[in-house]
Amino acid sequence: MLLCPDDVETLGIKEKDSITITTATGSVTVNWVAEKNLDAGMVFFPYGPWANQVYASGTGSTGMPLMKGIDATIEPGKGKVLSLKEIVETLKEDG
């Protein structure tokens, strides 16, 4: 996930700290990198297994989940960043 440097400062996180992002759909702990071209309050979360934990499954008839304009809370990491295998196992359990 890419974060604005101003938000990194506000969160009080340091390089190698994880963050937890929570939306109405779910929550996931991830690694991050500061990106100077992002405005404060904006993040870039590339599509993939970790992002899928916080995006809703509705597509708005587009065939792809809606991934823009989603309200989220970001805070210092709670727990560890799961590996891909661990995410898949979690999905099997929730099955």
Give the low-confidence spans: none
% residues in beta strands: 15-25%
For the record, give the distance between the C-alpha atoms at the N and C termini, rounded to a whole number: 26 Å
CATH top-level class: Mainly Beta
CATH architecture verdict: Beta Barrel
Radius of gyration: 14 Å
User: And the CATH topology?
Assistant: Barwin-like endoglucanases
Mean pLDDT: 90
List how many beta strands DSSP finds. Answer: 6
Major sheet characteristics: 3 strands, mixed
Shape: globular
Helical content, roughly?
10-25%
Q: N-to-C SSE series?
A: EHEEEEEH
- Our count of domains comes out at 1
Major sheet strand order: 4-1-5
Helix-and-strand structural type: alpha+beta
Helical element count? 2
Question: Can you characterise this structure?
Answer:
- The protein is globular and about 35 Å long.
- The chain is 19% helix and 19% strand.
- It has one domain (2-94): Barwin-like endoglucanases (Beta Barrel).
- It has 95 residues and is an alpha+beta fold.
- The strands form 2 sheets. It has a 3-stranded mixed beta sheet. It has a 3-stranded antiparallel beta sheet with strand order 3-2-6, with no helix packed on it.
- The two termini are 26 Å apart.
- The longest helix has 11 residues, at 84-94.
List keywords for this structure.
single chain, 95 residues, alpha+beta, Barwin-like endoglucanases, three-stranded mixed beta sheet, three-stranded antiparallel beta sheet, 2 helices, 19% helix
Summarize the SSE layout with pairings.
Layout: E1 2-3, H1 5-11, E2 19-22, E3 27-30, E4 33-34, E5 43-44, E6 73-76, H2 84-94
